[in-house]
């Protein structure tokens, strides 16, 4: 089947996947709700004050951990020969199958996570405030509060690019590793993190050989950077690199999926 998009067929494939894995997705949502409730409970028990910075920290850490599981388990029908045959026989193009998993594992998951985290936080805050004698100083955050930070270009351009890169990297790994995906992805991330750290240590020794404790990529005022539209050039270059490599990884993962047909 040619790799083009037929929106009716895309919808039917999405509907088929949701119906086939309804119990699995429902169980995941229930477990996610319970996990986020306990996370929010622990946050409020350990802190008497919670501002937007602290809230964002817990929000994005929770998203990374939960999203890691969701994205790394993409393409479940590729796990095992019988399931793989079912996947390949679906009356949909590879591009449509690819997009269905992207929609479910990233877009729908993100929407569900945003809603559940906000509801859990509201519920936990209401219960904690009701029974706690000393009322905690906790702001009343909105459902999209954390996203406002991402539009602060000067401080969060690198963070947004990193989030996109990480999501795409996890999604690409799900097409590369057919077995033990989560374990192999953890190993891959560890290796990449070590290589990146060593690279920046090398740059630090080159540019700051007299200041051994100064790390290159977190420096704001070294003489080798310029400002462009209010953004540090190091951050700007890093953001462009991460977004560019994300596009390449998406193409790579799509062609890895096409290889399954052979």
From TrEMBL:
The chain crosses the membrane at residues 25-45, 57-78, 98-119, 155-173, 185-208, 236-255. Keywords: Membrane, Transmembrane, Transmembrane helix. The keyword Transmembrane applies. This is Uncharacterized protein. It comes from Flavivirga rizhaonensis.
């Amino acid at each position: 089947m040619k790799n083009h998009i037929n929106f009716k067929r895309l919808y039917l494939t999405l509907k088929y996947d949701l119906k086939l894995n309804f119990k699995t997705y429902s169980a995941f949502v229930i477990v996610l709700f319970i996990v986020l409730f306990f996370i929010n409970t622990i946050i409020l028990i350990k802190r008497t004050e919670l501002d937007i910075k602290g809230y964002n920290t817990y929000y994005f850490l929770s998203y990374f951990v939960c999203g890691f599981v969701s994205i790394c388990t993409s393409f479940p029908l590729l796990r095992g020969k019988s399931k793989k045959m079912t996947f390949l026989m679906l009356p949909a193009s590879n591009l449509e199958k690819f997009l269905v998993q992207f929609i479910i594992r990233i877009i729908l998951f993100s929407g569900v996570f945003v809603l559940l985290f906000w509801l859990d936080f509201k519920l936990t805050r209401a219960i904690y405030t009701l029974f706690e004698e000393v009322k905690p100083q906790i702001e009343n955050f909105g459902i999209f509060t954390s996203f406002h930070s991402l539009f602060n270009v000067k401080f969060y351009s690198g963070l947004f690019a990193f989030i996109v890169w990480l999501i795409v990297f996890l999604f690409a790994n799900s097409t590369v590793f057919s077995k033990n995906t989560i374990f192999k992805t953890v190993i891959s991330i560890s290796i990449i993190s070590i290589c990146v750290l060593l690279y920046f240590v090398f740059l630090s020794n080159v540019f700051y050989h007299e200041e051994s404790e100064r790390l290159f990529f977190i420096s704001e005022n070294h003489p080798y950077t310029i400002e462009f539209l209010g953004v540090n050039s190091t951050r700007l270059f890093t953001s462009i690199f991460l977004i560019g490599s994300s596009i390449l990884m998406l193409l790579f993962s799509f062609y890895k999926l096409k290889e399954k047909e052979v």
